[in-house]
Design goal:
Elements lengths: L1 H16 L12 E5 L9 H10 L4 E4 L4 H6 L6 E6 L4 H6 L1 H13 L7 E6 L3 H4 L7 H14 L7 E3 L1 E3 L3 E2 L8 E2 L4 H13 L4 E4 L2 H6 L7 H4 L10 E2 L6 E2 L2 H14 L8 E6 L14 H16 L14 E3 L48 E4 L5 H12 L21 H15 L13 E4 L67
Helix pairs in contact: 5-7, 7-8, 13-14
Length: 507
């Protein structure tokens, strides 16, 4: 028994020693990806104007568009250009072709345009496997052309990978790359290490959540706070994971370490959440997209790092700047953008304390709404309280008034909850209502019904010290006339998902 315990201790020590193998780098940054599959694509000048207005200092292009690079000149914005997959074979088979590509797309624009990285292909191993045999040579040829132009120190060369190349990703300490790609992956990693570059990884907790069949809770995917007993714990390292993003990044770190690469930084080249989906994608919503991207930005800019490498920057590019209405596939494929083609925010990010990047944040624009799946009897009781002891003006919900339709308890409760929340100056604890309310940055106004706090209405309320019933309250309402009672033969119920992530340990 003592021998076994000693062996386990040695194993744990070796795993934890790897935590310090990646040295601290510069502060993390948040950038954006620029897709162009829009029916009304803004001009390069308009794109740059939006980047400046939002204080976005890092952008990744999926090509090396000349007009876009000219528009970015003298802005200081750091640019990652890309070798598209359809050019990879030619470049990977010819040093001269690679040199010509660098001459046309890089040398012609620097130093005026601040090109700092080249992404060679995109998810080649999974999206274009027939080009995989030339990926390493393409990387080397592009890098050699930079060396010849004395640009290799300021411009890094790498290639983005899908996280799907990582197998057995939880617990992260057991993760490894798909071994069928070892003949490509090993020389790619050696190249990145020898050129002082970094590993590019696309991380999409949305897809991991969707494909988990209910095993991964939504809160875990969205960076929402978890109680300690809901955190996933890697049984091998005892590292705690509070979100999917960190678990995937650490899985990549561990997968690299098993190929003897222990000091290669990771840059997440794509991550985001769709704001709209088809009926099969019920969690592709404005609220969830807002929550994920807002929390992601704060997580990255706080230099939190990951459990394996705390404090080590994991710079991240959000996918993506614009909604791309011409993209094929499901509804969600067209709705990953932060802005529409007119430069208007798809939703208002909530970025308290996250600096000035993506300044479409209006922190004060928050609303209190009925929680999805809340028990309708509890909603009704809370609605009665708000319209009674809570002293909310509920007259706009009377029949014939602007907020009467749709005539259901969820919509009416949302109006009353939000009216109380705004009335109480959004004080802590005023959007709870015994657990059936939640705060959102999405304006619940609809049609002619403008809720208090909306940009279209400035509500005025009398001062009051009444507090909304919280989860600790024992009394909901006394003597409140149920003007807005809604009867229904069935009630929505929230599913309580047992948090079981493969072999994770939960405290």
């Amino acid at each position: 028994m003592e021998v076994r315990m000693d062996s386990m201790a040695v194993l744990l020590l070796l795993l934890l020693l790897a935590v310090s193998s990646v040295s601290a780098a510069d502060d993390a940054f948040v950038g954006v990806n620029l897709g162009t599959d829009l029916s009304d694509m803004p001009s390069p000048t308009e794109v740059v104007a939006l980047l400046k207005a939002q204080n976005i200092r890092h952008i990744r292009l999926y090509d090396a568009d000349r007009a876009m690079l000219l528009a970015l000149a003298n802005t200081g914005i750091q640019v990652t250009v890309s070798v598209p997959n359809d050019q990879l074979l030619g470049i990977g088979q010819s040093n001269a072709t690679a040199a010509n590509w660098i001459t046309r797309n890089v040398i012609a624009h620097v130093p005026a345009t601040n090109i700092t990285a080249i992404a060679v292909g995109s998810e080649v191993l999974t999206a274009l496997p027939n080009a995989a045999p030339v990926l390493v040579s393409a990387l080397k040829f592009i890098h050699s052309a930079l060396v010849a132009s004395n640009l290799d120190r300021q411009i890094k060369v790498s290639t983005p990978h899908s996280s799907s190349i990582i197998l057995d990703s939880f617990p992260p300490s057991q993760a490894f790359f798909n071994r069928s790609w070892d003949k490509v992956m090993v020389p790619v990693l050696n190249f990145l290490q020898s050129t002082d570059s970094y590993f590019m990884l696309n991380v999409y907790p949305y897809y991991d959540y969707m494909q988990s069949n209910g095993v991964i809770p939504l809160d875990y995917a969205l960076f929402r706070p978890l109680p300690p007993n809901k955190e996933a714990v890697d049984a091998n390292t005892l590292l705690h994971y509070t979100n999917v993003f960190d678990a995937i990044v650490d899985a990549a770190y561990f997968a690299m370490s098993y190929l003897n690469i222990t000091n290669l930084p990771i840059v997440v080249t794509e991550s985001g959440w769709p704001s709209k989906g088809d009926p099969a994608e019920p969690d592709a919503t404005l609220d969830n997209a807002n929550t994920y991207n807002s929390n992601l930005i704060k997580h990255v800019l706080n230099n939190t790092g990951t459990p394996k490498h705390p404090g080590i920057a994991v710079s991240t590019y959000i996918y993506e700047l614009y909604n791309e209405d011409l993209r094929p596939g499901s509804v969600s494929e067209k709705n990953w953008g932060l802005f529409d083609a007119n430069g208007l925010p798809v939703y208002t990010l909530h970025l308290t304390g996250a600096g000035t990047v993506l300044a479409n944040d209006t922190t004060n624009q928050t609303f209190c709404v009925a929680k999805e799946g809340a028990d309708k009897k509890m909603l009704q009781a809370a609605l009665d309280w708000a319209c009674g002891p809570g002293k909310v003006d509920c007259s706009p919900m009377l029949q014939g008034k602007p907020c009467y339709e749709p005539d259901n308890v969820v919509t009416h409760a949302t109006y009353a909850f939000n009216a109380y929340f705004q009335k109480m100056a959004k004080s802590p604890g005023t959007c709870d209502f015994k657990g059936v309310a939640t705060i959102t940055t999405t304006d619940p106004s609809h049609g002619s019904c403008m809720v208090p706090g909306s940009a279209g209405r400035n509500g005025t309320f009398d001062n009051s010290t009444s507090l909304a019933p919280s989860s600790n309250s024992t009394t909901a309402s006394s003597g409140c006339i149920s003007l807005f009672f809604h009867s229904s033969g069935s009630f929505a119920s929230s599913a309580i998902i047992g948090f079981l992530v493969l072999s994770a340990v939960f405290l």
